[in-house]
């Protein structure tokens, strides 16, 4: 008999967006449709045999220094991870014991609950309101760690700065503000870490900087928190090529801002185009649009779009089962999605 821990045997694994082969236009994982900065590709191309042969800098000091400069904090305020998911793993290792409670909203990034369950902790779920606002019960919740993505991971909702501050003020444990999509909203809670020792802000280069394949992310917090996270991180959690590429990406802020602005413009006109076709759209501050079709089921729309060459995402959960999530591609790709939707409608018309 295999002696698997009971918590792992009972675990429902996190399911990421599909990574298909073939010619599908992939709009299901909120990836950046544009290439990374040319500086990134030069950094990757310049990799040496020694960088491959030797272990990388275990503390990612150069990358952290660059991130600290960009985020307006000290190096001691930053920890680097193999994507921000890696920093999430450090957080649950550091702060959660079996039986502890985390607080999350619904809908949200479900990896929070999965990682907590690995530690034997459980989640208390606070549903967002009908208008996708933060519920009153979340404030001051009796949780060891509260996780909040802002903008929200599945809806794109941007929560007001005042509500985020109140969450930090009233929290009874750690607060993790996950800013994977914040560059598309033009806001950040990083300044709050200077006021609150129990706040950790997460950043990733997967979305805005187009480094999803290299896995670079950060946690930003007060030095004593970073020191504890350092104790539990994997020894060499970020490879040498990713460290070099991450620094290059952060150094080319003008390029990133240009691409982010392009994605936001695409999101805005695509959201309007769906509304004109009768779709119910959720206001988004991220790089995707969540919308419910005017007729038929969301699952049927996803299947029909895949048959026409476009891969989008559907969450079969009570709050989201009516909706389709469209990651933003290029303007040409999104016009193709609309043409496919129009073709589907025409095919269904009597």
Describe what you observe in this structure:
The chain is α/β, with parallel strands linked by helices. The chain folds into two domains: 121 residues, Aspartate Aminotransferase, domain 1 (Alpha-Beta Complex), CATH 3.90.1150.10; 215 residues, Type I PLP-dependent aspartate aminotransferase-like (Major domain) (Aspartate Aminotransferase, domain 2, 3-Layer(aba) Sandwich), CATH 3.40.640.10. The strands form three sheets. Strands 2-8-7-6-5-3-4 form a seven-stranded mixed beta sheet, with helices on both faces. The longest helix has 24 residues. The model has no long low-confidence stretch (mean pLDDT 95).
A few lines on this structure:
With 350 residues, the chain is of the alpha/beta class. The chain contains 13 helices and 12 strands. Helix 5 crosses helix 9 and helix 11 packs parallel to helix 13.
């Amino acid at each position: 008999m295999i002696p698997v821990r009971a918590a792992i045997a009972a675990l429902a694994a996190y399911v990421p967006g599909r990574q298909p082969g073939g010619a599908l236009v992939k709009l299901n994982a909120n990836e950046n449709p544009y290439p990374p900065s040319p500086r990134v590709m030069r950094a990757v191309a310049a990799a040496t045999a020694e960088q491959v042969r030797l272990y990388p800098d275990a503390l990612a000091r150069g990358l952290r220094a660059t991130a600290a400069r960009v985020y307006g904090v000290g190096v001691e305020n930053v920890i680097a991870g193999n994507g921000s998911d890696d920093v999430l793993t450090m957080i649950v290792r550091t702060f959660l014991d079996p039986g502890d409670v985390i607080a999350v909203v619904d809908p949200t990034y479900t990896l929070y609950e999965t990682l907590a369950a690995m530690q034997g902790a459980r989640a208390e779920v606070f549903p967002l309101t009908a208008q996708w606002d933060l519920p009153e019960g979340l404030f001051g919740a009796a949780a060891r760690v509260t996780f909040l993505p802002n903008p929200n991971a599945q809806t794109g909702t941007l929560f007001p700065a005042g509500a985020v501050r109140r969450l930090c003020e009233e929290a009874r444990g750690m607060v993790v503000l996950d800013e994977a999509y914040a560059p598309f909203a033009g806001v950040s809670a990083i300044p709050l870490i200077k006021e609150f020792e129990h706040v950790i802000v997460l950043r990733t280069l997967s979305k805005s900087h187009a480094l999803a394949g290299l896995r670079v992310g950060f946690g930003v917090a007060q030095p004593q928190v970073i020191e504890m996270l350092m104790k539990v991180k994997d020894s060499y959690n970020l490879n040498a090529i990713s460290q070099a590429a991450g620094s290059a990406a952060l150094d080319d802020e003008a390029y990133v801002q240009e691409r982010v602005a392009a994605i936001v413009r695409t999101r805005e006109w695509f959201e309007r185009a769906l509304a004109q076709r009768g779709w119910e759209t959720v206001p988004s501050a991220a790089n995707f649009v969540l919308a419910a079709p005017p007729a038929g089921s969301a699952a049927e729309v996803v299947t029909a779009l895949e048959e026409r060459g476009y891969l989008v995402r559907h969450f079969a959960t009570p709050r989201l089962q009516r909706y389709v999530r469209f990651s933003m591609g290029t303007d040409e790709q999104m016009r193709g999605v609309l043409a496919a939707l129009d073709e589907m409608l025409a095919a269904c018309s009597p």
